[in-house]
Structure formats: structure tokens, C-alpha cells
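So, can you check this record?

>
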Amino acid sequence: MTETSDITTPGEPDQPRLVLRAIAVIGIALSLFQLYAAGIQPLGLFFQRPIHLGFILVLTFLMFPVTGRRRRGPLGWAVDGVLIAGGVLVGYWVPAHIDIIANAIIPRGIDVTVGIITTLLVLEAARRAIGLGLTIIGVVFIAYAFAGERGELPWLADTLPGILHHRGYTLERFSSQMTLGAEGIFGLPLGVAATFIFVFVLFGAFLEVTGAGKFFIDLAYAATGRQRGGPAKAAVIASAGMGSISGSAIANVVTTGAFTIPLMKKLGYRPAQAGGIEAAASTGGQIMPPLMGAGAFLMSEFTRIPYIDIVLVSIFPAALYFGSVYLLVHIAAVKQGMRGLPAAELPRVRDVLAEGWHFLLPLVALVWLLVAGYSPMRVGYYAILAVIGAAVLRGVIGWVTSGATLPGLVALTRAGIEKTLQALSLGARNAVAVSLACAVAGIVVGVVGLTGLGLKFSAMMLAFSQGNLLLALLMVVLASLVLGMGLPVTAAYIVLIILVGPALSEEFGLPLLVAHLVVFWWSQDSNVTPPVALAGFAGAAIAGSKPMETSVQAWKYAKGLYLIPLFMVFNPVIILGGPLPLVLWNGVIVILALTAFAAALEGFLFGPMPVWARVLVLPGTIAVFWPSIAVEAAGAGLLAALLALNWWSARGGGARAAA
């Protein structure tokens, strides 16, 4: 068959209908396998992880042909057919031979060969599904493992600085590390992807298919549309809501931005401004509990801190981020004299809730199960059942109110089955990129464990910063920006935390959770920071603006992404807790600092802010971040005085005093 489907997934090439059906069937099979392991019969790591990876590899080579966007010819199918067979081999080999592998003192030659095949397939699949950058990083780490007098590439050791030297490893030792233990490809990152992350990606797919995305957007419009800059504020709120069901800032931009950006432009925002606001808001979706992209699950596994604890401590920082974006949007709207949309053009909150109230039930169930202490994987399983149950309940109510006819019941059942299969397939396809990112991250983890690179990198970091924490944090920011240009957020976080985490927590004394949160937040910065701002570029495409100009706007509106992690470092009480008065004090001063910084950035709050006042905001903000209550109080007093003066001037106080 050569007929193609009318509907294709964005970023994927056109495919023959038969191939699309194969992708759907394999995706459904993978989702059902994951649901079985999540809610019915948990599997051992050397069963679930290889089988999951095998499914992902087969899906990847079906979804992304070797010929790119062109149709596969006989040669293309010959290449991809071999790779698909290799994916099946990866999923089969370790589970089928686990007893022999576990009891072998010296790895068998066939196991080493399969390990090499697995590594090559993961790198090629990542190149196709994610991009060349991640594959290059994987290859660089592999080459580093081979660089040494005992390694496969002894000559490469001569090009390395002395501190990076190691003895080098053979192909057999490297292959064993990658696939015959729990520190390589089948290690922790892929384990998290194959359990927690997949189940919640599938949960998001069920919400998406049943219309939850439109519900959150409509609810945001109904709540904020009449205010100044209403569509921009709706973008902030809708992106926070979409962040609970989406694992990608770019996906947030293209879903919420398709509605919000045109309305922002209509209201008076410049195209680049509209695209930048949407990019900044959508990036916040990745730090928004309860899902936080995939970060909360990975953080929980790395730190051994319960998932629910990470979610709870992340609520206030996420609220600060969205509050800062919301305030900047409000200031821009007031400066430009904007008004809200007419009520006739907006949905009503009552109507939106009446139509989509059932979408709130799964989220309530999810939060309740987390608080009750269920494991994240089991919570995701029950949350999916809750989505299905809520959709069935809504459908039955609609069927009863429409007359409860037999043909109506048949049509409702058919539609329910179709949407369920669609969600199962969509969830598997959405999980491809993050699973491959975690598999390549496993290569990095394996090499770091094999060569001791983590300790060496920590020593380099300590030497460069001369023990200065601020310089060390600057290194983390720069490293996150560079890594983020070629890596997805999940992979960038894993690579960074492996390299800089030990130094931050052991050498500089940062609490473990704070170190992880800081690295995770800064791993997002490539979405909004020029010259490579991926979410900004997506916003520019929808807004019809220049990519670089839009990225600069996104960078401006996302300032909280840089400041809030610094506050976590120097005022860790907002994460770790403490005496209630101290926690409240830190909460108040960080809100004050972010408000003053936003006003200084825009030169406006209640009214125009003079240049001298904007300049004074900088030392006041620095003082608020200082780990001393006396200095904090002085900085907070200065900022409060500047904001009060701005309010007084805007109310005409200056004019009255002169009179």
C-alpha cells in the first residue's frame, strides 16, 4: 500500500498507511505492557528496561526512516529492516538469558556483541528522534572511555589534560558496563523512563485525547480574559495547567500558543513580545508540579527523597516563577495601555466547568494518591484509570440526557474504544524521545562510573572557582546553556547533575535536594536563552516574528528561571523548611525582590520608574539574596521604599507635594 494518512505527527515524515498502522499497533502494545507492569505485575529491572528499550527502538526506526522525510525505497527498507530486527533483539536478549548472564564470571562473547549492537542502535535512534547533538555527546563519552594506555584508543590519551587521564578500557569491558549491569544503558535514567515517566506521559496522552488541553486553555481565558493583557495572562495560566500533562516546553508553545499568540497580537502585543511571553510561560510548565516534565521522578531516584516531598517543596518556587512572568506581562499591558477582551468574546467560567468538570477528577485523584503514599508508578496507573472512568461517566451522562438510545450507546462505545486506542498509541510515541534521551544518558552515566570522570570534573570545578560558590554556579549556568543547545532538558539535567552534583553538594556544602533543584531549573534555560532558544523559536514560528528577537523577549520574561535557583542556594529555608517565622520571612522577601526586579526591568510598576530607582533595585536585590538576616532586612527595606515611592508618585503624590 502506498496511500498515506491525512494526519501525521508533527516532526515525523509522511508514511504509508500500513506503516502508520504498524506504529499504532506497536505503540498500543508498548503502552499495554507498561500498564501491566505498573498496575498488575511489577517486573524486575532486567526484564522491564530491555523490553521497554526494544519497543522504543522498533518504534523509532519505524517512525523516522533512514531516508529522512523522503519515502523509503528498497534500500531504505533494507537498512531499517535490519535495525528494526536489532531492536527486537535488544528487547529479547537480556530477559531471555538473564540467568546465564547473572552467573557468568567472564562475559560471553555473544553477550558482548549484543551489547555493542545495543549501544550503536541507541545512538542511531537518538540521532533520528532527537538530533545529532545528543549522539555526538554519546560518542565523545565512548571515545573518552577508550582513551588510555589499556584502552582501544591509546593515542587519544595524549590529547587529554593530565587531570582527565585514566587507564582506558577495552571494547569488552565497555560493552559489559553498558548492557550487563545496572550502571549503563539499562541503568537508572532508563529505569525511570521505563516506569514513572512513561506512565505519566501516557496519563498526559489520555488527558490530551479526551480534550483536557482545551479545557485548561478555556478556563484560563475565562478567568483572565477581561483583565489588561488578558490573553497573555491566559497564556501564563494555561501553560501552568498544560505543564501538568505535557513533558515538553516546545509542545506547550505549539498547543497553548496556537490560541494565545494570535490573541496577544490582536490585543496590541508586538509579535516578538507575544511569542516570547508564550515561550517563557511554557518553559515554566517543566518546573510545575506534580509532574515537572520528568524531573521530579529522576530527582527522587537520584536523591532517594520521596517523590511527594519533591513535589511539595517545588510548589512555591514554581508559583514564584509564574508570578514573575504574570507580573511582567501585567506591567507590559499597563505600559502599552491595553484593555481586556470583551466578555462576549470569552467563555464563562461556569460554562467551561460545566463542560469539562470531569477533567479535574483525575488530577484530584492523582494528588490524593500521592499524599496517601502510593508509589509514583502505581499513582500513574490509577490516574489513567481515573481519566478513563471520568470520560466514561461524562459520556454516560451525555447519553442519558440525550435520550439513552441503543444506537447512541453503540456510537458512544465505539468512540470510547477509538479514543482509548488513540491515547495508548499517542502515549508510546510521545515517550520515544525521552526514553532515548535517558538511554544515551545511561551511556554517559556508565562512562562516568567506569572512568571516575565525576570526581575529576568536581576537582576541575573547584580549581576554576577557587572555592567561590558564585563562580561555581556561573559554571553550572554556562554548562547548562551549552548542553541544552544539543540535549533535551531531561538529558541535560542528568549529564549536569552527574558531573557537577558531587562538587556542589560535597565541596561547596549545598544540601543535596537544593543542588538537584538548581541544576534541574537551569537545565531549562536553553529553551529561552539566545542564541539557541528552542521554545522561543517555536513561539516565533507561530507569531511570525524574528527568532532572535523573540528569544530575547523570552529571555527577559523568564528571568525568574535564573534568580529563583539562586535564592534556593543562598536562602535554602524555602526548600528545606525551618522555623515558621523564618520561612515566612524568606517567602516575603523573595516575592518583594522578584517584584522590584520586574519593575526595574520594565522601568514601570504603578507608574514610570526613574533611572536612579531602577539602579538602586540591583543592590537591594543582591542584599535580599545575602545569607544574613541583617543584610536581607536592609535590602528588603530599600526595595519596599522604592516600590512605595513609585506607588506614591503614580498616585500624584509628587504633584500634590509641589503644590
